[in-house]
Amino acid sequence: MEVLMDAVHPMRAHHLCAVLGLLTDKSKVEGFRSKLKRLVEQGWLMEAEPGLFTPRQALAATGDAREQAGSSTVGRRTDVRSGSPP
Q1: 61-70 long-range contacts, Cβ below 8 Å, gap at least 24?
Q2: How far apart are CA 37 and CA 28, in angstroms?
Q3: In sequence order, what are the residues at sequence separation of 6 or more whose Cβ sits closer than 8 angstroms to the Cβ of residue 74?
Q4: Of 15, 23, 46, 54, which has the fewest beta carbons less than 10 angstroms from its beta carbon?
Q5: CB atoms inside a 10 Å sphere around CB 6
Q6: Per-residue pLDDT tens for 16-28?
Q7: Comparing C-alpha atoms, which of 52, 48, 45, 51 is closest to residue 2?
Q8: Residues 6+ apart with CB under 8 A from 62
Q9: DSSP per-residue letters across the chain
Q10: Angle between helices 13-20 and 26-42 (to 10 degrees)
């Protein structure tokens, strides 16, 4: 997901395999492509055009907000626990 989030353009399965350091044999790329298709079905990715994968824009924006909110929430919980007596 990070590679697709950082990518400027949608990427093909073959290019994703190469960037991730996976084998680029036809059989390995086809297996990886099927995993990408499952992520499309689950709503994590979208196919801009057949074979071109990109993250869902709504998830990308919401994911950053969730990470920031999650880290601040954890910080508050830690502060409360460490500051209060047992």
Answers
A1: none
A2: 14
A3: none
A4: 23
A5: 9
A6: 999 999 999 999 9
A7: 45
A8: none
A9: -HHHHH-SS-B-HHHHHHHHT----HHHHHHHHHHHHHHHHHTSEEEEETTEEEE-HHHHHHHHHHHHHHHHHHHHHHHHHHHS--
A10: 110
Q: Which carries the bigger pLDDT value, residue 60 or residue 17?
A: 17
Place of tokens 């350091």: 21
Q: Rounded to 5 degrees, what are φ and ψ at 49?
A: -140, 165
- Hey, which residues does 53 pair with through a beta bridge? 11, 47
Q: Which two tokens stand for residue 27?
A: 């059989």
Rounded to whole angstroms, the Cα distance separating 13 from 50 reads 11
Write down the pTM of the prediction.
0.62
Distance, in Å, from the CA atom of 1 to the CA atom of 54, rounded to the nearest integer, reads 9
